[in-house]
């Protein structure tokens, strides 16, 4: 029986879609506990919360992938049930997922209409109608894409538009966007914002999930905060401050987001001159001192990661020289880099960092095997010693060092990866997007740790696309644009404005 | 996980014990020690090949050319024996291992340098190797009377109560147990298959590691080639035809993950023994050999299901504790 019988609600205020008292339990875990969520037509609601707050679960409940144990889903005030994703789709609820799920070998139109293609005679797909419908949707999005193009020929931004077109092709009334800007560059993000505005104008209700506060404040009308599977607060974005939102998310004050540190720069440890690659970057020269954190900022596709991979030996540069502690070295493979004291912690620590099927100690010692083994034979006692030393330093929590890494929590897996690199006793550590996609609490921990490494005399290169992080952590910043160094900024000159303008090539410094 | 792992191998041992128990009900003589030793000897080629295959699968590859490699190397050493009957057997063994290694390296080079999917490479070389045998012999057999006595004697020669063939299998089990658990190369096999990207960043050359896996598999196949043709005293194009699938089956039953990164020498050994016992017992208890295939197939599917269960994580922790580990 519906309890919430408000007799006369003006249409603009009534939520298009609402959840009330929704609980979802998995064996041993309560993922959602009595949460509510209201999405209004023509409004963007930002759903914020740390990793594990239950955001993804709620998306899955809304799209019919999970069924709630308790609680109501209402569309236009009427209770509905979504036993399968098709039910959600026919109710007009559609989601654009974090990783766009598209098919490279199919055409744009086929991607858009996969699963609900217009049928002609004998139940065969009516390609002509499908293509013209696709063209219509795409032009509605302001996209200049031929529906007949094979998807793989499109760039990232256009693929994203196809994903959005797919979401809209089902006559969507509620559009869920799960971290839609995570993989986009600056201009693409701007285009996405325009698109969201367009959808708002068409009266669609939008649920916007993001970790980035600037964009939440930029495009959201309302907010809803989740924490530990519970709804903590909601309201209009105009009535809340960034600090209040953060407080709701983490349940405590994050007063000092970036650690204060005693900046003591030591001797020059790394010197890179004239690094070049035929297609990715050119003329990269810089130096790095002990105890220094050097930020690398740039838009997606500016060549930062490509350069770092060349410096680490996973790709080979066409020209350039490197010195470590004044001695010229050659890096032709990651093994070379590691042996010279350069290590690289990749962006995707899950995929590129840990080996789930191996126990902790074997993960930690993997790049240090030359040291812990003798003539190709492993010495397990040495391995355990090394692994124990670094897991204790990082406060790694596990039943034993024999535990397989795949069974650890995400945070502990990350510690394994970092322990692995520290165990090589590096001189230079390259951190590629060290806090991408992780929640604010964990971010602070990573930043503190980074400061600690620098304080111990390690030289840190931090590749980051997050301006606050670059500003808050770096002693010096190199801004890259289109494969070249656009600017090198000292601590005093690092401001969000200068970073953005150099990265985008807008101005010659205004300050 | 480690416990699950141990228990999976224990499970396989129990399955083998149950299998033997059931067989002994109908045919008690089967479990007599002398017969079991016979079964082990009979299974030795499978054990050897399964160890090589296990290493290849560990690196996310597969070697479908093992049986063809075995047949080609077997033919080559047979022809060498005909051409130079006086050549000492130690030289024959060395030739078999070297030649098999070269064939394996050929697979490895294609996988490593040209990045062709291993299943395609070895499907191709499987056919090529058999084709070469045909070209060498025009389809003729090398028969027992053409081989020297010394050539045929080695696998059967008795050494402290066991044939040399069995001893070679035992030696391989020990040798590769050490290689896999106690050497950098062994660790590299696990890392390269468990997470190729992470292994690359850790300074492991994944392609090179896969190359060595194929080389080892080839070396073992070559050695087994000599043992096979000398034991059966015959070499021809179709020696061990289709045996590569039995080898892969032994690995899968032995808990080797076809996705790479998981597997062990004891697992491969037990998987091979399981199939070996079935192959030897069914004719004895008067069951049609067609059942043998069905039972092997059933065992594979059960093994895959059990492995999938064991690898399933216990459920994600979604709710966080209030405290944040810093």
- Span from first to last CA of chain B? 26 Å
Which oligomeric form is depicted? heterodimer
Unreliable runs of chain A: 1-11
Number of domains of chain A: 4
CATH evolutionary superfamily of the largest domain in chain A: P-loop containing nucleotide triphosphate hydrolases
Report the β-strand fraction of chain A as a percent range: 15-25%
Number of helices of chain B: 13
CATH architecture of the largest domain in chain A: 3-Layer(aba) Sandwich
Strand content of chain B: under 5%
Indicate the mean pLDDT of chain A: 83
Given the helix and strand composition of chain B, which structural class is it?
mainly alpha
Largest sheet of chain B: 2 strands, antiparallel
Distance between the termini of chain A: 64 Å
Total number of beta strands of chain A: 22
Shape of chain A: globular
Shape of chain B: globular
Helix content of chain B: over 70%
CA gyration radius of chain A, whole angstroms:
25 Å
Produce a short descriptive summary.
The complex is a heterodimer of chains A (511) and B (326). Chain A has 511 residues and is an alpha/beta fold.
How would you characterize the overall build of this protein?
The complex is a heterodimer of chains A (511) and B (326). Helix content of chain A is 33%, strand content 24%. Chain A has 18 helices and 22 strands. Chain A starts with 16 loop residues before the first strand and ends in a 7-residue tail after the last helix. With 326 residues, chain B is an all-alpha fold. Chain B has 13 helices and two strands; from the N terminus they run ααααααββααααααα. Chain B has a two-stranded antiparallel sheet. In chain B, strand 1 and strand 2 form a beta hairpin. The longest helix of chain B is centred in the last third of the chain and has 27 residues. Chain B is globular, with a radius of gyration of 21 Å. The relative contact order of chain B is 0.19. The N terminus and C terminus of chain B are likely disordered. The chains are: A alpha/beta (511), B mainly alpha (326). At the A-B interface, strand 2, helix 10, strand 18 and helix 16 of A face helix 8 and helix 9 of B.
């Amino acid at each position: 029986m519906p309890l919430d019988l408000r007799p006369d609600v003006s249409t603009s205020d009534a939520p298009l879609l609402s959840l009330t008292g929704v609980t979802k339990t998995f064996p041993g875990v309560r993922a959602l506990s009595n949460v509510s969520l209201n999405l209004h037509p023509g409004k963007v609601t930002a759903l914020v919360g740390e990793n594990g707050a239950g955001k993804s679960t709620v998306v899955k409940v809304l799209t019919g992938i999970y069924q709630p144990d308790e609680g109501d889903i209402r569309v236009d005030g009427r209770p509905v049930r979504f036993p399968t994703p098709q039910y959600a789709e026919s109710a007009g609820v559609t989601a654009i997922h974090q990783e766009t799920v598209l098919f490279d070998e199919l055409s744009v139109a086929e991607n858009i209409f996969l699963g609900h293609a217009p049928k002609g005679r004998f139940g065969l797909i009516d390609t002509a109608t499908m293509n013209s419908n696709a063209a219509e949707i795409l032009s509605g999005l302001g996209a200049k894409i031929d529906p007949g193009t094979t998807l793989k020929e499109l760039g990232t931004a256009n693929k994203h538009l196809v994903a959005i077109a797919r979401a809209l092709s089902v006559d969507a009334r509620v559009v869920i966007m799960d971290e839609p800007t995570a993989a986009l560059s600056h201009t693409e993000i701007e285009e996405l914002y325009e698109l969201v505005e367009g959808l708002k104008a068409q009266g669609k209700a939008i649920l916007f999930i993001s970790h980035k506060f600037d964009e939440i404040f930029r495009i959201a009308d309302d907010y809803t905060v989740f924490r530990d599977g519970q709804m903590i607060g909601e309201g209009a974005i105009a009535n809340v401050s960034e600090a209040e939102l953060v407080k709701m998310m983490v349940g405590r004050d994050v007063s000092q987001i970036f650690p204060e540190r005693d900046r003591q720069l030591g001797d020059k440890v790394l010197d890179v001159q004239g690094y070049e690659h035929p297609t990715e970057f050119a003329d990269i020269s810089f130096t790095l001192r002990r105890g220094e954190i050097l930020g690398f900022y740039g838009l997606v596709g500016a060549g930062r990661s490509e350069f770092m991979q060349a410096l680490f030996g996973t790709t080979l540069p066409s020209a350039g020289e490197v010195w470590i502690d004044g001695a010229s070295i050659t890096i032709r493979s990651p093994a070379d880099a590691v042996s010279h004291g350069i290590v690289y912690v990749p962006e995707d620590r899950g995929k590129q960092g840990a080996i789930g099927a191996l126990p902790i100690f074997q993960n930690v010692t993997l790049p240090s095997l030359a040291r812990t083994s003798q003539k190709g034979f492993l010495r397990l006692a040495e391995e355990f010693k090394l692994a124990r030393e670094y897991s204790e330093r990082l406060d790694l929590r596990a039943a034993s060092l024999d535990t397989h890494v795949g069974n650890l929590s995400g945070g502990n897996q990350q510690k394994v990866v970092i322990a692995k690199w520290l165990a090589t006793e590096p001189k230079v550590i390259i951190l590629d997007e060290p806090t991408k996609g992780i929640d604010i609490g964990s971010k602070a921990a990573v930043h503190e740790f980074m400061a600690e490494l620098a304080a111990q005399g390690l030289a840190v290169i931090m590749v980051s696309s997050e301006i606050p992080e670059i500003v808050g952590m770096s002693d010096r910043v190199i801004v890259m644009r289109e494969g070249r160094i656009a600017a090198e900024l000292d601590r005093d000159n690092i401001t969000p404005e200068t970073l953005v303008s150099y990265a985008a090539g807008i101005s010659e410094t205004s300050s | 996980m480690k416990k699950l792992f141990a228990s999976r191998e224990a499970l396989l041992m129990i399955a083998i014990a149950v299998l033997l128990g059931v067989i002994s009900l109908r045919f008690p003589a089967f479990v007599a020690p002398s017969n079991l030793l016979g079964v082990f000897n009979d299974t030795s080629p499978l054990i050897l090949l399964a160890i090589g295959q296990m290493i290849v699968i560990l690196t996310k590859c597969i070697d479908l050319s093992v049986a063809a490699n075995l047949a080609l190397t077997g033919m080559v050493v047979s022809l060498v024996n005909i051409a130079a009957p006086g050549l000492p057997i130690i030289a024959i063994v060395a030739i078999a291992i070297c030649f098999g290694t070269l064939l394996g390296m050929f697979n490895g080079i294609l996988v490593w340098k040209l990045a062709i999917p291993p299943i395609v490479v070895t499907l191709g070389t499987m056919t090529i190797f058999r084709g070469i045998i045909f070209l060498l012999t025009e389809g003729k057999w090398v028969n027992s009377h053409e081989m020297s006595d010394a050539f045929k004697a080695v696998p059967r020669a008795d050494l402290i109560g066991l044939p040399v063939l069995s001893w070679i299998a035992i030696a391989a089990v020990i040798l590769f147990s050490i290689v896999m658990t106690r050497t950098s190369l062994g660790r590299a096999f696990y890392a390269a298959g468990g997470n190729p990207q992470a292994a690359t960043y850790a300074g492991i050359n994944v392609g090179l590691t896969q190359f060595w896996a194929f080389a080892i598999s080839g070396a073992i196949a070559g050695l087994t080639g000599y043992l096979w043709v000398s034991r059966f005293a015959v070499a021809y194009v179709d020696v061990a035809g289709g045996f590569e699938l039995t080898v892969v089956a032994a690995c899968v039953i032995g808990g080797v993950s076809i996705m790479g990164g998981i597997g062990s020498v004891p697992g491969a050994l037990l998987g091979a023994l399981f199939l070996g016992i079935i192959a030897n017992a069914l004719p004895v208890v008067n069951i049609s050999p067609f059942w043998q295939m069905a039972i092997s197939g059933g065992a594979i599917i059960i093994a895959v299901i059990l492995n999938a269960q064991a690898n399933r994580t216990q459920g994600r922790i979604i709710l966080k504790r209030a405290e944040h580990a810093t």
